[in-house]
Amino acid sequence: MMQLPCPWCGVRDESEFVCGGASHIVRPGLSASDAEWGSYLFFRDNPKGPLRERWRHAYGCGQWFNLMRDTLTHQVLSVYPMAEPPPAGG
Amino acid sequence: MPGYRLPAPAGQCIDRQQRVGFTFNGRAYQGYAGDTLAAALLANGVHRVARSFKLHRPRGVWGCGLEEPCALVDVGSGPRRTPNVRATLLPISEGLSVRSVNCWPGPEFDVGAVSGWLAPLLPAGFYYKTFMWPSWRAFEPTIRRMAGFGRIGTEPDPDHYEEIALQPDVLVVGAGIAGLAAAAAAARAGARTVLLGASARLGGQCAWQEDAEAAGLAAAVRAAGVRILTRTTAFGVYDHALVCAHETVTADGAAQLPACVLRERLWKIRARAVIAATGAFERPVLFADNDRPGVMLASAALKFAGAYGVACGRRAVMIANSDAAYAQAARLRAHGIEVAALVDVRPGPHPPTEVPRLLGEVHAVHGARAVAGVSVRTGAGLRHLACDLLLSSGGFAPAVHLHSQAGGRLRFLEESAMFVPDGPAPSLVSVGACAGMFGREAVLAHARAVGEALARECPAPAAAPDGCGRSAPLRPVAGKAFVDLQNDVTSADVALAARENYRSVEHLKRYTTTGMGTDQGKTSNLNALLLMAQLTGQPAAAVGTTRFRPPFAPVSFGALAGRRVGALYRPLRRLPAHAWHESHGAQFEIFGDWVRPVAYPQAGEDLNAAAQREALAVRRQAGLFDGSPLGKLEVYGPDAAEFLDLMYVGTLSNLGIGQARYGLLLNENGTLVDDGIVARLSARRFWVNTTTAGVERTAAAFEEWLQCEYPHLRVLITPVTARWANLTVAGPRAWDWLAAAGLDGALAPGRTRHMSLTDSALDGVPLRVLRASFSGELGYEINLPAERAAWLFERVWAHAAAVRGSLYGIEALQILRTEKGYLHIGTDTDGTTQPQDVGFARGVARKAADFVGRRSLLRPAAQDPERLQLVGLLGVDPTQVLPVGAHIAPGPAPAVSEGHVTSSYRSPELGRGVALALLKAGTRRSGERLTAYHLGRAFAAEVVMPPFIDPTGARLHG
Q1: Which of B69, B673, B698, B926 has its CA 20 to 30 A from that of B4?
Q2: What is the pLDDT of residue B130?
Q3: ipTM confidence
Q4: B940 lies in which domain range?
């Protein structure tokens, strides 16, 4: 059971959150090729190490936010708002 | 029988003034308060307590605590029956009733022992290679019946289990001297400290010795204000160092309990720093017939003597692969137990001892049903020693489980043949024997320093693992030398695995089942991997250990479930007017989270007859329905219209105020996930109906799109399902009924249109009236504040007689919507269904916005004319109702399915069965005769295009 820092509510147990998967995935437009669209829908990196994800504090404030987490150690490396680009060094 | 009770003062844990009576396999015995079952049985001379899992060999008590692989018993009866309780941990209580596992009728004479003769047929992995002809299935039932441990009660558990969360500064796991020293130091340094002890007494293995220093440490811990949880075992370290521990509050099998007791507690402890002081398990020496009752761990014999005053035999021989054996032998003698010889399997030098010493190895254990002697192969030939107790002292294996679970690495200490922590784990520091430290002074100094450092949030000083002396390498042994007593794995099985190339420890474990079961290999894992190292010529460090996974000790499902059982498992939602429906004859059923009227049967009617009558009443006169659970969202903001255009297949931004439209929701893969009516309340406010089951995920999906993809849109989404009740009146006389009940004439069919929403009021109560229909008849969905629902039902129902109106439930609603071909998401659609499959191709083509899932509808698969499409089916026999789930196929099984029946009812209006189906290329097959197959029956049917009634929709307008 990880503990995640909600930017609005503070540190809470993982069970209060929903993980939305990798963040900063760009949604292609209607003119995208089938291959591009398929890649957007189904293909994600699965790194051993830092991963940028989006999480929702579902059983709290309901807000989505970005979080960078080390998938090996579960260390939370940074937390930043949805609309922001990833921080440097990530 | 060899076991007997020693005179006082031996027996630190028992009260000789208090006798306790219990039964074991139906026979009455007596022990003392404080005895474990194992201690009391040994004191009564009972050595054979169980049969082994696979070979049904007689087994005795082998260990003295958590590590016990053999002495498993069934405790209690009825709903409190608990299987596979370790006799070494079970306290006896007056009236306790216990049975052996794995044997029938008992451990003395066991019918299943025949499998011992079959042993050559049961090597490691036997189920992969023997019993293959004619088929494994022929043997499986018998083998399954003979396999497995214990049996569970089948009635509901009457007892309570609770869960408590703690957030101390420092958590110390283990109440031996290392844990006590660390906890006291941490608390004295100002940390809020919690200490977990597995047994009722503090001090670990020192608790039952005359040990003034340990007693002083226990007193210091109490004085320092440490919160102490006894009979509590930490069973897992989870992410971010959450430690879960399991407390026994009421022991298994305690007799004369009230109807409901607090049985166990689950502790979820999140500490800033965790100190593991979990000690070590004794490692057995490997020799043939080392499972004979009378063979046991030396540490166990010592604990039985010290803690319970029980001598496990009259004449012991100690088999030593460790210096620790010498001290153990001396202590046994101090208890008055004769140690006839100490057999050291190692080459010299050896410590001095007063016990007669032999250098050599065990050649054979004598005695068919219990130890009667041992032959030792020495440099001077075979020596025979008479004994009734054979003690195995092979050194120690540090309990590195928590360290490893916390992400810590291990290294191998060659001399002592043990794995020890290689530095601290993240958020967890080991002290004492589990850190590979065995010298008392060094252990206490290190534990104190660690406790104090972690309390002050400083780095902990490193451990200095020095091991427990020299240990000789393990070699394969001929005969039945058991590596894993619980799973009947011998050294020959390990050798077989090596020969067949199952050499990785993970493969070894799964192929031989070593280390599985309730003890998880506490006494077997290390020997198994040392043996594999020998057999394959690798260093033990290269072989490594299997992964240490939680739980460290068995945890009951009851403790994990806690209070989340019964009515609290999934709270049900009741309609605001539940009591009103109850008093009007509703028969309730559970639909998703909701308890809803399924029908309102009259005298002599079954559910089916009631639903037929109710549905017909809606078609002929009018019906009254509670639609309150229907999902409701308000979507508000200057960009609300633009946002909804991005969410829905249909365009909503061109809705006039007061207009409503049906919309489909897709996921990004183009699959239909929800539907409902959207109405415009004002320029920037929309009323969104979703399916009952889908409202939460729809609201969540809207929020995700809004916050993550379209954060520039100014929109608020408010779920209002519980706020608004929904009373629906449908049927040709719906308006007559509502007019009689006093609703505003402005709502009349001529003055409002189908698919419109009008704000109205009745007696000052605001009503939001939607002209819409899920039945195909003139329909009014009246939304009103939930607390006024019963009032409006009463008000409307009072005028039912004027129109011969009827109440109707979910079953009639399903009949009505199926007659109209209105789809139900998740019933008439599946994970592949897209809008064009259910007749909404035009809605997609016309729309400008790049709505969710749209791009997926342009993929080649979406254009495939062979897709499953929603069609109607009419049985050739009109009296037949096609079974839902029946597969449409060109012939009986085996055949490739071309689709299946999704909804099917008898239509009271048409007097025949009607059905909807998803059918391959269905829309091109209108008029085709086909066959649906279900559970061996065939149903001839014809493909038609729904709806089955009122194809022009004239009835919607009243």
Answers
A1: B69
A2: 63
A3: 0.97
A4: 863-958
